[in-house]
Fold this sequence. Notes:
This protein has 207 residues and is mainly β. It has a five-stranded mixed barrel with strand order 2-3-9-8-5. Strands 1-6-7-11 form a four-stranded antiparallel β-sheet, with no helix packed on it. It has helices at 16-19, 79-86, 159-167; strands spanning 4-6, 37-42, 45-51, 69-71, 90-95, 97-104, 107-114, 120-129, 132-141, 152-154, 184-187. The two termini are 24 Å apart.
Amino acid sequence: xxxxxxxxxxxxxxxxxxxxxxxxxxxxxxxxxxxxxxxxxxxxxxxxxxxxxxxxxxxxxxxxxxxxxxxxxxxxxxxxxxxxxxxxxxxxxxxxxxxxxxxxxxxxxxxxxxxxxxxxxxxxxxxxxxxxxxxxxxxxxxxxxxxxxxxxxxxxxxxxxxxxxxxxxxxxxxxxxxxxxxxxxxxxxxxxxxxxxxxxxxxxxxx
Length: 207
């Protein structure tokens, strides 16, 4: 799964064509948690959206149900995501990396997962509630490498897949990217466990 990430992107690397208009006036940070308003990439470009999808039929913009992640195996059938899926409301969530936790000696030890010298671009869906946007990150079973820290992982896209995800009907079966094979992870400070914590020090290795 993906419960926190950091999206303070300092370089676009090879992604300029897709996310070259990444904003400087939207919130980015080193410890983004669900319900935060953050930039995503939709078919129309970069926009601001709430992390945690709110379907149009919800009574309020929020809610108690955890919709920040959607399972690839069931996303097209779940009521919260079905409309977004059928309307091909796909999006990209570019991040510098994300966090996972492992219990080590009775401590919730956070790890950073990233792709060295590149951006991690995750597949998602967005929806509109009145004039407000929200999104979810799609997850899948972890590959053997990342399974050591969590049994789920976000669907990570390469550039060709990212373009297809935005421009074509959503088709998870066609995503055969091996981007996750390039992923690496390392231990970071438990300060990350506090959602109020922020700053570059959070993503520094403690090994």
